[in-house]
Amino acid sequence: MPWRSINSRLLAVMAFGFVSGLPFALSQGTLQAWLAQSGCDLKTIGWLTLTAVPYTLKFLWAPFMDRYAPAVGGRRRGWIMVLQAAMCVCLLAMSQQNPSETLATLAVLAVLLAFLSASNDVVIDAYRTDTLLPAERGLGSTVTQLGYRVAMLVSGALALIVSKPLGWDGTYQIMALLMAMTLAVTWLAKEPATPVVAPRSLHQALWDPWRDLMGRSQVVGLLLLVTFYKVGDATALSLSTAFLIKGVGFSVTEVGVVAKTTITTALIAGTIVGGFVFARLGLYRSLLWFGVLQAVTNLLYSWLAMVGHDIPTMMVAVGFDNWAGAMGSTAFGALLMALCDRRFSAAQFALLTAVAAVPRSLVGPLAAAVVQSIGWPHFFIVTFTLGLIPLLLLPTLRGAIETADAAR
Predict the structure, then answer these.
(1) Hey, where are the domains in the chain?
(2) Most exposed residue of 83, 130, 224, 335, measured as fewest CB within 10 angstroms of its CB?
(3) What is the CATH topology of the domain spanning 3-196?
(4) CA 116 to chain centre
(5) Cα 35 from chain centroid?
């Protein structure tokens, strides 16, 4: 789908991608920088990484957001506005804290911000699923990622830069202002054109999403595909920074400046290219070819491990791997939208992302053990194989995928 086909629905989805990405670093990496600069010990900072837990557990309360709607704004848009306003207040409250004096209060606020942000993600995913037409899902996934990545740069890199002249209080106040400005976009966005009947009871909202999923044709294969489609890519990336520093010998500065810049550029480029190509290939063929590409590019790390410390080779390896990974994420996001029933899209999208997150959250320790056993070059050959295995399911699932993609 060419860019001229971007409409108000896709613009709203892009803006919501920004809303989704903005709070994450503010409760994670940026917060860690603030704490480190304030003299907090590493153990304390380590414990505060648990603020990310709500992003994993959001499926537990997602059904409530299918069942109930705020009094103003509609079933999806209303929740987004309420949560945006609450995040503005939370960010302003965080800006008033001093880690050396009110660390406990700051920690509670960080957890609250993560909870509000994770809840907002639930509704934004549901809004995208409910609103976009089947032909718009690929580009919808693309513009969501673009908005998200821009927000991560703003709340991550830009926040660190402005923290020096403005202080951390001023930085978090600016982030609160940006969040408040996005409320105007939410107000102007439209609810789905075709009304969706919400679950009539909380019991229905809790159990019917599972029953609906489990009643699908070839449900086991579809769930296996969701679970393992990105596992090869995730395994390769789980130790990528350690590989570049300890395995190949790049300095922290080289990784921070060269690798991270290359990765950011590649992710944005892969997201854009993925959207264009997806529009021509459709869901099934995109899942297949993007999946092959994200598996094959893992072999570039194996090549880098054999070449050693060489910046051009490193840029090629991390650039093409992240470019292909972004394309795979475009197809994967479209698959999740296709699998959701609009009556339960908040709960089902959260459930599916939780299922997909399970193996990715476990690969780190296993990956380290494999590297110690067989070395870096062979490790990345293993990740290449892991990337191809779930693709073997695709031919048997083609009918179910194309049926889901065509359904509304």
Answers:
(1) 3-196, 205-406
(2) 224
(3) Growth Hormone; Chain: A; (1.20.1250)
(4) 16
(5) 25
